[in-house]
Amino acid sequence: MESDAEGFSPDRAFWLLGDQMRTAILRAVWESSEETITFSEIREQIGSPDSGKFNYHLNKLVGHFLSKGDGGYSLTQAGREVVRAVMAGTITKHAEIGPGPIDAQCTECGGTLVVRYDEYGIIECEDCGELVMWNEFPPAGLDTRSAEEFASTFDRWTQVRFGLAMDGICPNCACETTMEVLDRAGESADGIASMHRCENCKYEARVPLFGHVISHPATVSFFYDRGVDVTEMPYWRMRSLAREFNEDVISQNPWTASITMRSDGHALELTLDESLDVVDVEPSE
Length: 285
Prior knowledge:
Blueprint: H1 10-16, H2 20-31, H3 39-45, H4 51-61, E1 66-69, E2 72-75, H5 77-87, E3 96-105, E4 112-118, E5 120-125, E6 131-136, H6 147-166, E7 177-184, E8 191-198, E9 204-208, H7 217-224, H8 235-242, E10 246-252, E11 255-263, E12 266-272, E13 278-283
Antiparallel strand pairs: 1-2, 3-4, 4-5, 5-6, 7-8, 8-9, 10-11, 11-12, 12-13
Helix pairs in contact: 2-5
């Protein structure tokens, strides 16, 4: 489905926001306790600039970033997203935190995992350098959180975003994502994974095969019956659990693969098709 609404080119949108007074106007409307704010209230809040200059910049924002009604001015969705990006620190802050230890061990060497932030959230092993998680994260989310709290929040943030990408929805811009199966079974430790890409904003997410089955009802039930709740697991514990999973490519045309998990002397085998959808579930010896 295509939208019939007229919009701006990216160049024009950047130009419209390329003035300090215009961004101050958007901030003033955002901070208003009322749904709408009047001309004089906005002008007073940003320091009562020259009336003609203020009116010029205000009118440039109306229609795309601001709506004008009988009660005054309010933010459009575009206006809200601009202010939210500023408030999240995404376009205004450069934060660096860590590394700080978390209560988890590396699946490769048994060393301690640490979390740090340098434009991206990163969880890695302080001993062998194994990269466990890496993803975008708003700098504002670091405020007031300890290393453990940040790691937990970052984990949840990443799992939700990857879940959207796996469902074909870009977590950045909501456009459709494409999926490519990366079949490296038997060639490297990476095994089988999927790469999800958004052509609009260039977002990418690489998801290991176990990420496509860990929340499947059969998997959840299999482990829950054996005292393990995978729905509450952070990614680094899922990753440790998945080391015991066996991945096998069943056929190339059509492409199908299986993943077998074991626990407490029992096994469960799930078969996936070329879309990495589970098409068969059965106990396995």
